[in-house]
């Protein structure tokens, strides 16, 4: 036995320690939730630095979210007892890809100031491509092509590599061709989409061995967290880089692979041993996160999946509290009951920071937000209906983008007539034509049109005014603090005023969001840094660091942990999600089950599952039946909780059927405490087969939710 090493190694178990200390050669840590995989990676970085095996900027470390990257940076600092400075290559695939692409942009025909399009911009651009090619976007929606292109990019396929059969599916076989045109347009605009952030570097590495060589020399150690969710492009990118030092350490858990719908391939885990012969594989079995009942429940549930690599998980603490399952009458009641539970826990001294509500679909969040606002309970929403995706924020951002890079045509188009300046489609068409003819940016084309007198009257005055404003704002970039500049722009452009004069209900909220936007710019050094951040944020956590409940999606919660986890909405159609079942059948169901496993294993001490008999989705009431996953939980580890008294009073209390659009027959047993009782009464109904989805799927807020029928659900 070797003598105890430095402090940071002291707390590790022997397998973890082996994974940390095996620095040379490829390493794969394959282990279940909460076994310390992320901790191993963090400690490994500290170890590399402490031994002086590499300098901070020679370590490439990939995390799944920006938030995880920040946390890893902090933890390494703590382990070393000093700030981990200079770790420039710690981030997400996207942020690291951006960095590499900016350094060598010219090798793929871009300028290093390229803009990163978000989904919304991407769709707008594809619409333009479709219309230029005379393709009816009602018949062939832009969104559909965007989805196909993303899928191809996830598999590292360029326009020429798309298999003929797949291209056939769009616009009479023109899929691949349109993809090519879209790429050409992106290049003209000096823009990239998310997929290009990886594809660009891959192309550069392949076509320019000297560049790849530079990175081989640089990256002495490479580490990847959540490896089970890498897609083919990410895998190829890693493999190219790892040909250098071969010191690639990946950690993952096949049971937590939840991004199959986005192209992630669990097979990458299996490939690892093939592509890196002699790779060391370490398995960790002790779970340090969750108490026994929670871990048993999660392990039992995931065991229903076929084709797992299979792992053992052993709890390290007491059995603790059982997982609770509770039913509610509707989703509003669910939000009220969970709000009450949170307040009760808080009054017993539990911190809100240690509690999270993890939802399957982001539309579920709003009801909790509203309830918490009523209660005055601080909360933060992570991901979901993202702040930066709101219309007013996008408009404001478009102004900032044009100021920072005048070549950003999509941004210019977005705001040229917002607020209304009399610069309609005709004016925009003129500007676009001129830009193409003269090969200049849109603002420059606009300037030339005005100067040449080709634009007349009011439109000319308005355009001239806008161009002069942009000149003035651009001139302020280096002279004025960027938050102040943002205020000036929003003010002088008339944008704030537009909402101030607006009489609609949302206007006030929009003004507040604009203020919030300016506030959110404060931590950044300059405008460019901020814009870069926004185009990359996937986890836009808001607000100050006050004690607050977290609301987020199950997908976003990967890798995180909380003392108490609330899991609402365990209903057929919502969870498992109807769309997954429809599109991917058994594989879809298994991915949903992995998501349930991820949800349960986020909890340290308390996991509280809820389901509602009725849910309002986009203003429409739908009845629902409990999720099949509830039946898959082991009884010994679960407590079925009586429904809260607030709605036990039958038809009294103002819960009249009139509240329901679909006016179901009101039953006196709707407050049945749990799905088990339904099972006792209704027999087969508790294992909802395909019949439960008889109502067929409905499209709501972009989500498919089963309009299953309570009448068949045994709740009567
Ligand atoms: P996930 O699969 O959910 O990402 P993980 O395998 O990455 O989980 P970690 O987040 O690294 O697990 O660790 C889970 C928890 O267990 C953390 O709170 C961590 O600090 C703790 N932990 C890990 N290893 C040990 C150990 N040897 N002793 C005590 N606590 C540990
Ligand atoms: Mg982890």
TrEMBL record:
Residues that coordinate or bind ATP: 31-38
InterPro entries: DExx_box_DNA_helicase_dom_sf (IPR013986), DNA_helicase_UvrD-like_C (IPR014017), DNA_helicase_UvrD/REP (IPR000212), P-loop_NTPase (IPR027417), UvrD-like_ATP-bd (IPR014016)
Biased composition (Low complexity): 681-697
Protein known as: DNA 3'-5' helicase
Keywords of this entry: ATP-binding, DNA-binding, Helicase, Hydrolase, Isomerase, Nucleotide-binding
Chain residue ranges for the region called Disordered: 676-698
EC assignment: 5.6.2.4
Occurrences of domain UvrD-like helicase ATP-binding (ranges): 10-291
Domain UvrD-like helicase C-terminal: 292-559
Major enzyme class: isomerase
Any one Gene Ontology cellular component term annotated for this protein: DNA helicase complex
SUPFAM superfamilies registered for this protein in UniProt: P-loop containing nucleoside triphosphate hydrolases
GO molecular function, one term: hydrolase activity
Any one biological process term the GO annotation gives: response to radiation
Listed CDD domains: DEXQc_UvrD, SF1_C_UvrD
Annotated catalysed reactions: ATP + H2O = ADP + phosphate + H(+); Couples ATP hydrolysis with the unwinding of duplex DNA by translocating in the 3'-5' direction
Record's keyword annotation contains Zinc: no
Family: Belongs to the helicase family. UvrD subfamily.
Pfam families in UniProt: PcrA_UvrD_tudor (PF21196), UvrD-helicase (PF00580), UvrD_C (PF13361)
Protein origin, superkingdom: Bacteria
PANTHER family: ATP-DEPENDENT DNA HELICASE SRS2, UVRD / RECB / PCRA DNA HELICASE FAMILY MEMBER
